[in-house]
Amino acid sequence: MTTGRSDSSPAAVEIADAPAEPPRASKRMISVYTAAMFAGSFALLTPTLFTVAYKLQVIAPEGKEASLGVIVGAAAVFNLVAGPLFGVLSDRTRTRWGRRRPWILAGIVICTASGLLMALSATPLILGIGWSLYTIGMAAALGAMNPALAEVIPSYQRGKVGALVGVGGQLAGVMGVVLGGMLTGSLLLLFLVPVAVLGVFFVFYAFTIPDHPVKGAEQGEPIWAIFPQLVFDPRKHRDFALVWVGRFLMQVGLTFLSTYQLYFLLDRLGLTPEAASRQLAFVGGLGVLVTTAFAVIGGILSDRLKRRKVFIYLASALSATGLSVLAFASSVPAFAAAVVFILAAAGLFGSVDLALASDVMPNKEEAGRWMGIYFVANTTSTAIAPIFAPLILAIGKDGANYTVLFLVGATVALGAALAAQRIGSVR
User: Fold this and answer.
1) What SS3 state is found at 184?
2) String of b and e for 99-125 (b: at least 16 CB within 10 Å)?
3) Angle (nearest 5°) at CA 274 between 268 and 279
4) Does any domain span residue 219?
5) How many domains, the chain?
6) What is the CATH number of the domain that holds 303?
7) Which residue of 113, 285, 327, 344 is surrounded by the most CB atoms within 10 Å?
8) Cα(147)–Cα(365) distance, rounded to whole angstroms?
9) For the segment 60-83, what is each residue's pLDDT rounded down to a tens digit?
């Protein structure tokens, strides 16, 4: 596997026979892409929402909140570089098998090995190392899968496909929590089954989704020459920078929920891990129905109306509302109501914002690079939020002030609407 450079620019690659606007995607292509993205979300969200926190509860219950913040934050720091790096590497890879598929396969292999390490870990340190390696593997796989939205899906279908991907992501989270509750007696299966699911769906992906080879230059490019491509000038690409900031702000609030929802149910509501898993699955199931409605309808309407920003405003308001309700929730019904609001916001925002990022992408031929940078917003929020969350949780109480934590998340989520308001090239 080598990297190549075109004659026109050190930062650009020339894709064989890749049109500026791809042809209309078939139902089969959309179905396979959506299913593969679901599998990727399932492999990522199962340990994110349940497995890592549960494993930590088993091996080191004392100080688990702070330990979880360190583990999640440290892994996210590695992913800050890994996410865009794998996107750029896949842009520039020259193999007969394509430029994206080898990196997806490599990510699956890394996740399998690191999942085994986490399952067998006996200390928070080893668990943290395993989780860092796992997130790097997911960065390789998803960093090579995400660009397909801009490469093989035309602009007039991106809202709909983004909506389907968003719904798939929410469904993956629910199924991951259900799996967690079912497999608490077998940590080995709990960590490895999600990766196996991704591996199965990748087979269909590899034979269905086009993967244009690169017209490679004869000379390879040194690996260190790639690193400058992991950043961009926000003054030159202002609208893309605003999309990035908006996603970051939205994800901070969502990260507070996803990281600490299990401990919220255990500590504030007094549930057992098994009961908490059932409640998370039940609430997630309700959320899928709402998410589907908001994501699919929002994505289709944003395509037809050729408007994106109004849906970002609505998603930001829904997220802030849900997080505010969650801050004062003292029962399972109140928790359920809050999470449904937040999941509706996540579905709507995820579908429309993904389409928005594709619309303002500076260079479609470097989709891997730009989508990698775009998804760094997720990683950055995942790195920063867990670092500050234990400090916020410690305000006035014994490390469990969820009221202040979620109110801070609600305030930050409102910033996504302000960022979208300043985007000039898209309505």
Assistant:
1) coil
2) bbbbbbbbbbebbbebbebbbebeebe
3) 65
4) no
5) 1
6) 1.20.1250.20
7) 344
8) 10
9) 888 787 888 888 888 877 877 777
